[in-house]
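agent> Task received from the user: take the single chain below, predict its 3D structure, and emit structure tokens. No templates, no multimer pairing.
agent> Plan: (1) validate residues, (2) run structure prediction, (3) serialize to tokens, (4) report one or two observations.
agent> Step 1 OK, no nonstandard residues flagged.
tool_call: predict_structure(input=
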Amino acid sequence: MLDLPIQILTALESASSLPIASSENFPDIDPLNVKSALDSLQAKEMITYETLETEEAILTEEAEGIVKDGSHEAKVYDAVCKELEGLKISELPKIVGAASAKVGQGKAFKEGWIKKNGDRLVKAVPSIKDVTREQLTIIKETRTHPSQSILSDLKKRKLISMAKRISFKIDKGPKFATEIIKEETDLTADMVTSGSWKTKTFKPYNFKALGAPANSGALHPLLKVRHEFRQIFFEMGFEEMATNRFVESGFWNFDTLFVPQQHPARDLQDTFYISDPPVADRPRDDETGEPLTEYWDNVREVHENGKYGSLGYRYPWKEEESLRLVLRTHTTAISARMLHKLAKNPGAAKYFSIDRVFRNETVDATHLAEFHQVEGVIADYNLTLGDLIGFMRTFFSKMGVHDLRFKPAYNPYTEPSMEIFGYHSGLAKWVEIGNSGMFRPEMLESMGLPKDLRVHGWGLSLERPTMIRYGVSNIRELVGHKVDLGFVKTNAAVRF
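)
tool_result: status=success, residues=496
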């Protein structure tokens, strides 16, 4: 038997008209094998071809039975006609089968072919036309039907299924021949020496051919956006804070920031508490290891009775609550440590951090139990709220966000506080992009910082700008087991 490329060339040579259809000339050959042969011949410019995609109707096993023996409703009608006094309903499944009785009886009633007379079925018309059988017969012969509504109805009744069929329209190429000449791919030394290269046919180079894809690693979109944030911070003269403390005591995570011990954020439904070990030691200096007794007492005093101009919260502050270990709920705990260190040598400073924080939240399309927080603080003398607003405009403009709005807000550790909104042209609406404020005097002065040293602070999540940048609507498609690795590999580095 001739191989497939020769069969194609022979079919083209003997065809009375061109182009020819692969579905008619090679109906029993797998379309993938046909395409492989066509590609080989087209590369030699012996043929040209066009791919055709059509949708065909395929009969199910039930439909094949209808074509052979008639539809369920026709079987029911025939069974009723054979009984002169009508057919008992209870006898119908025994005669036509349970499946035909169930489906065919309802259909025959709907068509008005039969009617009920007591407990019997009697015919209502003298004769019928088995339309379903005729429709399926046409489909079996032609693989389709002129009426799309009939195809839809038969598909709903699960009598047919639709399948894509690939075929090819084939024509002769500029170098058509019925014999395939072997093309050489390399010019060898022997060919040059013997002169045989003069009679050889060489395969032309395909300069448009794509190389094999190289497997390589890829940065996750979150890491790409994180890199851009870091570059912006470094460009603006910030120093990156160490963020390796995932577990913090309630003292650093809450009390130093003047979150009262009865605050809802400290409840089990909002915070992950550590069970082993359950508590930490009293805070110590990271460099000397000495207990921070004065700072500890200052924080206690501000909570219980007020200090540094603050009235405090006026409640009995508990040491055991302050020493409970938690998974940090924000990176502001790191900022508090850095500002306490700054108190040893007060002066202007700029710090930032980008790392994971943990909240005991219900997981949904926009929330996870852990996410990344981007945070920055600026310390300097005699700073004002206007300085903070001006800095926010400069900072976000470097990310391509130029239209900002500021809304008054409440944070336990900043006053005044502001939510930051940016206009997103892609979404055509204002989107909350961060939170900000000026740290309260009782927070800073209890650390030992001078009274006229002010500190700006602001934060935002890393996930939200990443989702907006990459068009991700469900955060679980960005982080977790549902992440598409193809999405990670093919997305370009972000540019704000």
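agent> Step 4: summary for the user.
The CA atoms of residues 160 and 247 lie 61 Å apart.
agent> Done.
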